[in-house]
Amino acid sequence: MELFERPGGGENAVLVQISFNTAKSVKDEKEFIELADSAGARVVGFISGSRQRPDPRYFVGTGKAEEIRQLRELRDANLVIFDHSLSPAQERNLEKLLQCRVIDRTGLILDIFAQRARSHEGKLQVELAQLKHLSTRLVRGWTHLERQKGGIGMRGPGETQLETDRRLIAERIKQIDKRLEKVQNQREQGRQSRKKAEIPTVSLVGYTNAGKSTLFNALTQAGVYVADQLFATLDPTLRQVQLPNQQEIILADTVGFIRHLPHDLVAAFRSTLQETIDADLLLHVIDSHDEQLTLFREQVNNVIAEIGAEKVPQIEVMNKIDLGGLTPHIEEGTGTTPTRIYVSAQNNLGLDALLEYLGDYFAGHMFRGTLTLKPQHARFRAKLYADKAIQQESITDEGNFSLNVIIDQRRLEQYLREENLSLDDL
Which residues does GTP bind (predicted)? Predict the structure, then answer.
């Protein structure tokens, strides 16, 4: 049973977006409408405006609040969505005035995440964020919740319904925290196993709808769900990718970032975002055709810094070059700018160059050379074959195996330790 039920047929919504104190304030009407669409709302009205600062009672002024009320009645809307964070009191005051449900940007994004979560972990993370958000909004204008429970079958141990609800939510949050801790430990074991295997991890990051999942599918043939909508991917997916130099990497597809990503979500999804924190390299996927790419780049880097991954090396993958008439190419980075690789994941342009670049990037971790193994080292030779590390093999006059090898340096050292050997012996 879902904690938060939604109407089956969608809802008519009026959107409200206000600019504060500066003409340079980002009024991204298109993204706000896309967010509402992604949640399943039917946008029947859009109200914008500007103020010096939020009004403590209605967030907007009384005149603007009345304008919203009239438009809501005119368009028969049953939901008003603000592209801002509202206080619980502002939400309640607006609901009383507008006579309909009111949600803010955080509530909207939480709703989208609730619809997108597929894995057990993802659902727990979304519910945790929802409960934390809800716990401050329990009264929501329903004054009967503040009264003492009474009547036959309703007499309680002396606490109000509101206190009961708060206690139940607190208990549920504790339960979810414990379950997520178990899942996080399992993820950590997986990460440690990959570290022992010395397989580099490359994490895809980027603004939502930049094409990360399309790129992920093109490189891995994983069949991850792709849609032209915000937050199509929520649960992380990991796949092994073979690079042209025979090295393997783990590629991780992660949730897209967005400006003003709710802090509760960042905190709840910390275990998921750990794949980004622990990565050896970030591929920052950017929609090269988007006129706001500079802003989006900055927003993504802000979230990367917020989760503690700002020191992870980064390469920018400029995606969707087919939409802007660009050709695949590579711009080497400088001290202040990262390397940029121009591709079209949708049309498979520039992906070979991307894989080759990754191969060269991790080549510092590779051993390339000839190993001479005696017949008694058959187990070592079998491991090299299992890793597809042997490029060519011949038999010497002494009956030994001469192997032309390309293998991860650290994995080779691990095998040598297991066989009590050193490179000098070979």
Answer: 206-213, 231-235, 253-256, 319-322, 344-346
